[in-house]
Specification:
It is a single chain. The chain is of the alpha+beta class and about 400 residues long. The chain is about 35% helix and about 20% strand. The protein contains 13 helices and 15 strands. Strands 5, 10, 11, 12, 13, 14 and 15 form a 7-stranded antiparallel β-sheet that branches. A 4-stranded parallel β-sheet has the order 2-1-3-4, sandwiched between helices. Helix 8 crosses helix 9. The chain is globular, with a radius of gyration of 22 Å.
C-alpha cells in the first residue's frame, strides 16, 4: 500500500512535455497544488541533461535525461522537501527495458523511507500487463487520472482520520478587496477564493489569473486550447449576460478577439472542462442555525424546480451521501437511462470540504460553487465558478 497523502502539495515528474501537461491538468482538477521547485533541482538535472533544455518547473519534464537512477534521485529530492506531500512520475518507458523493474522497486523504497506516496504511471504493452501486475506488489497506475483520483481519496481519508489538514489551517480570511464599496460584506477576490479552494482540497478547473493580453497568451499556451476567458475583477454576478465570459476559445486570434470585447482589471483564464453533471454547492451563515450547506443539481433542477437539500454544518460522509440522494435529479448522477455514472465520491468530498470551510471561517457570509461539474466515476469533479462573500473586517472601537 501507498503511505497516506497528508497534504495537497505534489511534485509531478514526466518523460515528455505532453505528459507533463496531462499531469498538471489532472493534478489541478483533483484539487492538488504544484509548488515551485528549489534551485537545487535545476543544478542537479543540468549535470545529467543531454541538450540542456530542461526548465526547473513543476511539473518537471525529464525527457532530456536517460538515467533511471537520476529519476529516482530527483523523486527522492522532492520527497525530502518538507512542503512536498507526494510525488507522481509518468514513466512511459518500454516495458522490456530492465530498468523498469528497478524503477518500481525504487519508488516503493522511497515511499517507505519518507512516509509519503511516490506514485508511478506506466502504459505497458498488453502482453506485458499481467507480468507487471504479478511482479509489482507496490501499486502503479496506467492512467494519470486514476493515480490522482487515488491520491485525492487518500488525502480525504487522512483528513477525516486526523482532523484539520495542514494546508486547511489558513486562519481568518484577510484577502478582502480594498475599496470604499458600501455595505456590510464584500466579495472575496478571485486570488483569495482560488487559494482558499485549494487549501481545503476543493477541486478547481485548471486556471490562471492574468492582468493583460500578453500574460493571457502565455497562460493559454501553458493550459492548452480550448480555454475560457472571464472577467475576474471587478466581480460580475451574471457574467454571461454581461458579456464577461467567452467560451470555446481555440486560438490566439480568438483570444485576442475576446480581449477586445471584454474590459476588466483582472481576467481569469480557464481550461475548458470535459462533459459531466452540473451540480451546485452553496453555503451561508444562518442567524439561528449558524453555517448551513446546500446541494442541488444545476439547470432547471435548481432554477425552476428548486430541487435542493440543506444541512446544518458540520456534516459527515453519511449526511453528504443522504443529501445527494435526496434531490429529485439524483438519478442523473447514478447513470440513468444508460448514461455514465458520475463520481459521487468526489462530490461527497466537495460537500465535506465546504462544510469544514464554513465551520472554520465565521467571516464567510455565503458561498456559491455554481457549477461544480462532476465527471464520470473515478475522474473527479471541478468547480468552474465560485463566489465567496465575507463579512467586512471589524475595526477596533
Amino acid at each position: 500500500d501507498l503511505p497516506p497523502m497528508k497534504g495537497p502539495n505534489l511534485v509531478a515528474l514526466s518523460r515528455s512535455g505532453g505528459q507533463a501537461v496531462t499531469l498538471a491538468d489532472e493534478a489541478y482538477r483533483h484539487g492538488f497544488t504544484l509548488p515551485p521547485l528549489p534551485p537545487a533541482f535545476s543544478l542537479r538535472i543540468r549535470e545529467e541533461a543531454k541538450a540542456g533544455v530542461i526548465k526547473n518547473t513543476n511539473p518537471l519534464d525529464l525527457g532530456d535525461v536517460y538515467n533511471e537512477s537520476v529519476f529516482l534521485e530527483v523523486a527522492g529530492m522532492a520527497l525530502r522537501e518538507p512542503t512536498v506531500d507526494g510525488v507522481i512520475f509518468f514513466y512511459d518507458y518500454a516495458f522490456d527495458k530492465p530498468g523498469t523493474f528497478d524503477m518500481i522497486a525504487g519508488m516503493e523504497r522511497l515511499s517507505r523511507e519518507y512516509g509519503k506516496p511516490a506514485v508511478l504511471c506506466m502504459v505497458p504493452d498488453k502482453a506485458d500487463w499481467f507480468a507487471l501486475k504479478y511482479f509489482a506488489s507496490f501499486p502503479w497506475f496506467s492512467a494519470p487520472e486514476r493515480a490522482l483520483g487515488a491520491l485525492r481519496r487518500s488525502l480525504a481519508h487522512y483528513g477525516k482520520q486526523t482532523g484539520p489538514r495542514r494546508a486547511a489551517s489558513v486562519g481568518p480570511i484577510d484577502a478582502l478587496p480594498a475599496g470604499d464599496t458600501p455595505g456590510p460584506s464584500r466579495i472575496l477576490s478571485s486570488a483569495g477564493t482560488l487559494d482558499l479552494m485549494r487549501a481545503y482540497g476543493l477541486p478547481v478547473v485548471r486556471q490562471e489569473l492574468v492582468t493583460n493580453r500578453a500574460d493571457a497568451m502565455e497562460a493559454a499556451h501553458r493550459i492548452g486550447y480550448p480555454v475560457v476567458l472571464k472577467a475576474a475583477e471587478p466581480f460580475i454576478l451574471h457574467k454571461t449576460e454581461a458579456g464577461a465570459v467567452r467560451l470555446h476559445i481555440g486560438s490566439d486570434g480568438e483570444l485576442n478577439e475576446a480581449f477586445d470585447a471584454m474590459a476588466a482589471e483582472v481576467y481569469l483564464l480557464q481550461a475548458m472542462a470535459g462533459d459531466g453533471v452540473e451540480t451546485i454547492i452553496g453555503g451561508k451563515r444562518d442567524p439561528e442555525f449558524g453555517p448551513v450547506v446546500m446541494f442541488g443539481l444545476g439547470g432547471i433542477f435548481v432554477e425552476v424546480l428548486k430541487d435542493v437539500t440543506v444541512r446544518v454544518a458540520p456534516i459527515d460522509e453519511a449526511e453528504a451521501r443522504l443529501m445527494i440522494g435526496e434531490v429529485k435529479g439524483a438519478a442523473l448522477l447514478a447513470g440513468a437511462r444508460g448514461t455514465t455514472r458520475a463520481d459521487t465520491d468526489a462530490l461527497v468530498d466537495a460537500l465535506l470540504a465546504v462544510s469544514k470551510l464554513l465551520v472554520d471561517h465565521a467571516e464567510i457570509v455565503s458561498l456559491d460553487i455554481n457549477p461544480l461539474r462532476v465527471f464520470a466515476q473515478g475522474k473527479g469533479a471541478a468547480a468552474l465558478d465560485v463566489k465567496i462573500e465575507c463579512a467586512a473586517p471589524r475595526t477596533s472601537p
